[in-house]
């Protein structure tokens, strides 16, 4: 554990928490579109309709922000393409910048190069932030002189840095590393700089006003600052937010810090996690750290199996648990790994602790608004006939399929050198690209030619197709109409 002085954690790490934001299909979603009283606006922050679910999401967020909901879980239940994922992402964007939000698809848990429970544990720990307060010592002042002596070969450098405030002046000896840092920042006499003593990081704060007449040495964007007052060495409080998972990775000897960027972290030993938990608890008691429970979103949660569900149940009891949001488009479905059927494919003991929010199919007006928002987002102009036919198609297929068609239709429009996407482009795109229903029809026409696997848990619209499944069960989908 000695390795974890918080200042050694790069502060850039916390940005990684929200990198899911650029998820293409949802890039127009910028929040939940609620007013101060948590009432959903007609159309705001890219969100349209689905008022009840948005309001419920807003209420739950409020409880998260007040720290009242860690260890709870909620479930978005509704037909495909009714905005479950979109609302979850809207929630993520409403959270503060240092509240972690993690998103996984349930099926990822099975495909990673680690056990299911390890994958879930990592997802949980990614969703818990630790805000660490630290005092560091900094050297701050105006550079009077930098003097560097190179050895004959140039391999070693030594030097002296003279730095002052309005009240004092000090000379520091410089080693190789510090000389490199100063030359990288192109520090010269007259610059006001800050040096973090623990990390050795050099920051240029600006040029001293006293030098404002040295015209030749500066560009147009030079920023002038006062020469600092008082002591040259000062203590300063800095705050970093990192997730428990990031602390795990950095301290796992076999992984190291680079694993964070490679994204390939492998399994982490339970003993290490215990050590880190007790260290964090210690920091909390000493007032050095604060726990920030974040949000873990598990999409298509019915794909988890019974082992994962019992893990979830236990993990939610844990003192360090995030808010878990799940989404499912199944009605009554088989719980994977068992022969039992239950609502949304979730076992009863888990269902029991979950707040369920249902999403409804969209009205044609809402569909049109969403199509328009997507067109704006993708810089596509659409004729009113084009909009008409897209929204009609949405009622026959799904909203997601129709939104995907937009960019294909635009390509076709560009090919015929038209400014706007018209009904003919949409019709042709519709012919080129099958939606799920037509694809299934096509497959059943081809059953003699396509290889189909027996007993595979592959259901379209909730109905098993091809041969009946070996356990004779069938999954009841949520009605789309
Ligand atoms: N209320 C909404 N406002 C704006 N866009 C939406 C809304 N609901 C869904 N969408 C968009 O429609 C598409 C399908 O929605 P999605 O959230 O993926 O549905 P689900 O997760 O329920 O299957 C996505 O591109 C999503 O961003
Ligand atoms: Mg979804």
| Shape call | globular
CATH class identity of the largest domain: Alpha Beta
- Rg calc: 29 Å
Helical fraction? 25-40%
Classification by helices and strands: alpha/beta
Distance from N terminus to C terminus (CA atoms, Å) equals: 56 Å
Oligomer: single chain
Let me know the average pLDDT: 83
Give the bound compounds.
adenosine-5'-diphosphate, magnesium ion
Number of helices in the DSSP assignment: 15
CATH superfamily of the largest domain: P-loop containing nucleotide triphosphate hydrolases
Largest sheet: 8 strands, mixed
- Counting DSSP E segments of at least 2 residues, the number of strands comes to 19
- For this structure, the CATH topology of the largest domain is Rossmann fold
Q: How many structural domains?
A: 3
Main location: nucleus
GO molecular function: ATP binding; ATP hydrolysis activity; DNA helicase activity
Catalytic activity: ATP + H2O = ADP + phosphate + H(+)
Subcellular location: Nucleus
